[in-house]
UniProtKB/TrEMBL annotation:
Domain spans labelled Phosphoribosyltransferase: 96-216
Entry keyword Transferase: yes
Signal sequence segment: none
Native source species: Halohasta litorea
Gene Ontology molecular function: glycosyltransferase activity
Entry keywords, A to Z: Glycosyltransferase, Transferase
KW Iron-sulfur (keyword) present: no
This protein's name: Phosphoribosyltransferase family protein
Coiled-coil boundaries: none
InterPro entries for the chain: PRTase-like, PRTase_dom, Pur/Pyrimidine_PRTase
Amino acid sequence: MNRAEKAALQLQAVAVLRMLKETRTYEELSEVTGLPAGDLNRYVNGHVLPGTERAREVVEGIGRDALADELKARVSFDDEGYVDNSAVVFDQSFLDLVAPVAANSFGFERPDVVLTAATDGITIGAAMASYFDARLAYAKKSKETAVEEFIESRQRLASGIELTYYLPACALDAGESVLIVDDLIRSGETQELLLDIARQAEAPVAGVFALIAVGDQGMSRAQELTDAPVGALSTFE
């Protein structure tokens, strides 16, 4: 790890601790993290940065659990099982914290392009792209009028409805690595279409990530379609 990567990790840890401190006293934060309250005070107030190993522990362990709990508190389901995750996908500062935690927790290699589906996937896609310093590309269910060439992926769902996504061909070049990101994975159909777009573009897949997994069907489906890491921040049964 070079000095820039070390500093970035330390600052990410501080950002996670500041988020946790918003709803906790230092004593409560100490119980959650296992770190001394005095040290936490100095980290949160910017007087000193945590060491590399402590920072890694905060980001990969404490941070992942804390963000998963926060996400669960913000998500609701209606009587028909539809998910309302508006309090998550519209909070860019929260998503900016998720990106380094997800990257470090699931071992995603730095991609050239983060690929997602419009529209709810765009904000988490933007956060991941910013963290990795990668380009963001998003597929849509309709074609842009002025774009001449598309990568098209089509699938007929069990319900009989045909789902199609279009990505402008210029958005993804052969050989560019792709991290597929979305806000939600349930059946895995959207992820399958995005993986197919990457395949058609001859772009190797660096991983598949979702904020929320509902059940394990979608995760299993994605794992069958790629050897790259597949992960979700929080899982709902």
